[in-house]
Design brief:
- This protein is of the alpha+beta class.
- The protein has a single domain, classed as 2-Layer Sandwich (Alpha-Beta Plaits), CATH 3.30.70.
- It has 10 helices and 4 strands.
- The longest helix has 13 residues.
- Bound molecules: guanosine-5'-diphosphate and magnesium ion.
- Guanosine-5'-diphosphate binds next to helix 4.
- The site of guanosine-5'-diphosphate (GDP) has 9 residues, from helix 4.
- It catalyses: a 2'-deoxyribonucleoside 5'-diphosphate + ATP = a 2'-deoxyribonucleoside 5'-triphosphate + ADP.
- GO terms for molecular function: ATP binding; metal ion binding; nucleoside diphosphate kinase activity.
- Its EC number is 2.7.4.6.
- It is an enzyme of class 2 (transferase).
């Protein structure tokens, strides 16, 4: 960049983003979301399509056990294929959550109509995407979906070169 040595890009952050079964059922929505990820300058570090067993769903959402929506959520998330991404960007966690919008689809439509959940969400359960909500949950969720991936190693060995290329 023209700022030379003054230009000092912030470190990239990793987040776990998931396209949930309601959206994966519609190839055009998956394609639109994939394009949105690229348009917003995320680096796609890894991605895969997968289907959860019910026990995967229960384990991933253990923090919500006992809530009124838990059974619905667990059944929905194991009802069909999903696509998971490890995404890298400056402020990836917050940025992806901004793009997703509020958890509840009707609130999203009212308050943030340009967000993913407002545009594609069907119900409060079937709300199109997941995104980690903190550095700790990103670590845990990346390990849950991509057990072979080493966050620390990526940050030390690969993040500097990706950042230099930003
Ligand atoms: P998120 O981080 O925005 O995905 O929201 P939470 O971590 O609070 O909830 C996890 C998921 O549970 C949400 O994405 C929804 O699919 C579902 N969920 C959360 N709150 C509600 C609710 O009030 N009603 C219903 N039906 N589902 C909910
Ligand atoms: Mg959450």
């Amino acid at each position: 960049g023209s700022l030379g040595p003054l230009r000092c890009a912030k470190a990239l952050q990793l987040t776990l983003a998931v396209i949930k079964p309601d959206a994966v059922a519609h190839p055009l929505i998956v394609e639109a979301l994939h394009q949105k990820i690229l348009a917003h300058k995320f680096i796609i570090v890894k991605s895969k399509d997968l289907v959860w067993r019910k026990q995967d769903s229960e384990k991933f959402y253990a923090e919500h056990e006992g809530r009124f929506f838990y059974q619905r959520l667990v059944e929905f998330m194991s009802s069909g294929p999903m696509r998971a991404y490890i995404l890298a960007r400056e402020d990836a966690i917050g940025y992806w959550r901004e793009l997703m919008g509020p958890t509840k689809v009707y609130r999203a439509r009212y308050s943030s109509p340009n967000t993913i959940r407002a545009q594609y969400g069907l119900t409060d359960t079937r709300n199109t995407t997941h995104g980690s909500d903190s550095v700790e949950s990103a670590q845990r969720e990346i390990a849950f979906f991509f057990p072979e991936f080493h966050v620390q190693e990526w940050m030390e060995r690969l993040e500097p070169s990706f950042r230099a290329g930003q």
